[in-house]
Amino acid sequence: VCVLYTQAIGNKEWREFGRTEVIDNTLNPDFVRKFIMDYFFEERENLRFDFYDVDSKSPNLSKHDFLGQMFCTLGEIVGSQGSRLEKPIVGIPGKKCGTVIVTAEELSCCRDSVLMQFCANKLDKKDFFGKSDPFLVFHRSNEDGSFTICHKTEVVKNTLNPVWQAFKISVRALCNGDYDRTIKVEVYDWDRDGSHDFIGEFTTSYRELSRGQSQFNVYEVINPKKKGKKKKYINSGTVTLLSFLIETEVSFLDYIKGGTQINFTVAIDFTASNGNPSQPTSLHYMNPYQLNAYGMALKAVGEIIQDYDSDKMFPALGFGARLPPDGRVSHEFALNGNPQNPYCHGIDGVMEAYYRSLKSVQLYGPTNFAPVINHVARYAASVKDGSQYFVLLIITDGVISDMAQTKESIVNASKLPMSIIIVGVGPAEFDAMEELDGDVVRISSRGKFAERDIVQFVPFRDYIDRSGNHVLSMARLAKDVLAEIPDQFLSYMRVRGIKPSPAPPPYTPPIHVLQTQI
User: Fold this and answer.
1) How many CA atoms lie within 13 A of 243 on its CB side?
2) Contact 139, 184 (CB under 8 A)
3) Which domain-ending residue is among 53, 84, 103?
4) Any idea where the VWFA domain is (predicted)?
C-alpha cells in the first residue's frame, strides 16, 4: 500500500491525505486509486509517499512493515516532463528500496466553456407604450435545491422577437460541471427604474442544451401566475437556442506538461542606500544565524519556481555596485563573477554567489532597473515559440533613478514571453513601484501602452511575521508575487496564438515480446 501525506505550511506537521488500495503479493504494484488535490502554482505543497507491506487487516500502520518513502513537491511532479516524476524510494539505511513513478493530470471537466446564442418569439407585451425590452437571466441549481445567478444577457429594446448576442460562460459557472443539473432561465422586461417585469421562465440542463439547435431546444416561456389564473393560457412566448459551441480552455499546466520551461533570473540591488553589509542595520547584513530580507525573498520565490525549470541553472545579476579591480559602476553584473556564464546551480548556488559578491563589490548607485530588464528581454526575444517563458525577480530597497528608461523597457518587454516580480525591502516609499505594477493604470512610455500587465510589485515589510515565524511569512510572500504568473503566461500565449505542445506519451512498462523465428 502507498500512503500519501501533505505538510502544513506553518508547523511543518505531516498529515495523512489518503491511501491507495492494497495490491497483494507483488513487488511492482501499479496502484489504481488516485489522489485528487488542489494545485496552486504559487504555493509549495510538500508531499511524502510512504510504502508498507500489509500483513493484516489492521488500519494501524505500525502493525505493517515499512518499505521506504519518497519526498517531493506537487510542483516537482507537475513540472517534470509529461508531469511524470520517477524517484528512488529511500528511508531504510544501506538498502535499495526500489523506485516510485508518480504522474499528475489536471481534471478537465472544469475547463470547458460554452458559447451560446438565444432568440425569442412572441413574448408577452409588458410596456404600456411600445413593446417589451427583454433580457434573460440564467441560474444554476445548487445541491440544496436553491438557485444561483450565473449570467444575464444584454437588453434588446422594443421587440417581442429579440435575438440576443452570443455569450461565453464556463461550464463550471453554468452547472458546476454536472451535465444533468437543472438550469433555470427567466425572461424579464427591462424597466428604467429597475423594477423589471417578469415575463416567464423555463428550465433546461447542460445535456439538453448540448444537443444544439434542434426541436428539443425550443422552450415555452411560462408565467406560473398567469397559468394558474387563465384557463386558455398557453405560454408567454418561446425561447430558442440558436447555437451551442464547446471550447476547451487550455490551462497553464497544459503548457508545462507539453514541455514549456520557466526560466528564472534574479537581480539584486547593490546600491549604497542599503547600508554597509557588515552593520546589523544594513538590508544586506550578513547575519550568520538567519537570512536577511534579500535572502528570504530570493529563497521564498526561487524555491517554488525552480520546480518548473529542468536544468535548475539560474542567472543571478546585481546592479548599482562598483566592481573590482578598477571600481567601474555596473548595472548588470554576474554575481558569480563570470559575465560569460552568470548561471548558478539551484537556489542555493544563487545564495552562495550573492554572499560572495557582497564581500567583493562596493555598494554604490544609482538604482537603475532598465539594464537587467533588457538583459532578460534579449533572451526572451530569441525564443518566442512558447517553449520558454522568463521570470525576472528584482529585489530592491526602492528609490528608482531611471524611471523613464524602465517604463520603456517594460512596455517593450510586455510583447515578450516574460514577467517581472519586484520585491521592495526596507522602509522606503515605494510609490514609483506601484506605478510600474500597472494594476491600477496600465503602464505606458512615450504614448505607447504595455501590451499586457507583466509587473507584480510587493513590499517585503507587509510580510514580516510579528511572531518571528519566517516560514509562514515567506509562504505568503511567494503566494502573492507568484499568483499572477499563470495568467500573465497564458495572456502571452493567447495573444500569440501559441497552443501547448502535445504531452509526451504516458509511460507504459516495457512488455517482453517473445521473439519467434519465421
Assistant:
1) 11
2) yes
3) 103
4) 263-464
Q: Are residues 98 and 160 in the same domain?
A: no
* Total Cβ atoms within 10 A of residue 226: 15
Of 188, 216, 248, which residue constitutes the final position of a domain? 248
Q: What is the domain count for the chain?
A: 3
Together in a domain, 385 and 436: yes
Q: What is the DSSP string of 198-211?
A: EEEEEEEEHHHHTT
The CA distance from 506 to 103, in Å, is 9
Are residues 99 and 217 part of one domain?
no
Give the CATH number for residue 167.
2.60.40.150
Q: What is the domain-level CATH number for residue 490?
A: 3.40.50.410
Phi/psi for 242 (5° steps) reads -90, -35
The range of the structural domain enclosing residue 360 comes to 261-496
Q: Which residue has the cell 500519501?
A: 4
On the CB side of 302, how many CA atoms lie within 13 Å of its CA? 25
The side-by-side arrangement of strands in the sheet containing 238-248 is 167-170, 112-121, 238-248, 218-220
Q: Are residues 221 and 282 in the same domain?
A: no
The CA-based diameter of the chain, rounded to the nearest angstrom, is 99
pLDDT tens for the 518 residues of the chain, in order: 999 999 987 778 999 999 999 999 999 999 989 998 988 899 999 999 999 999 999 999 999 999 999 999 999 999 998 889 999 999 999 999 999 999 998 876 667 899 999 999 999 998 777 899 999 999 998 877 888 899 999 999 999 999 999 999 989 889 888 889 999 999 999 998 888 999 999 999 999 999 999 988 999 999 999 998 888 999 999 999 999 999 888 889 999 999 999 999 999 999 999 999 999 999 999 988 889 999 999 999 999 999 999 899 999 999 999 999 999 999 999 999 999 999 999 999 999 999 999 999 999 999 999 999 999 999 999 999 999 999 999 999 988 999 999 999 999 999 999 999 999 999 988 988 988 998 878 899 999 999 999 999 999 998 887 777 788 888 889 999 999 999 999 999 989 999 998 877 665 555 555 555 54
Residue 419, classed as helix, strand or coil, is strand
Residue 243 contacts by C-beta under 8 Å, 6 or more apart in sequence?
115, 116, 117, 166, 212, 213
Nearest to 410 by CA among 462, 457, 365: 457
Say if residue 288 is preceded by a cis peptide, omega within 30 of 0.
no
My answer on whether 146 and 77 are in the same domain is no
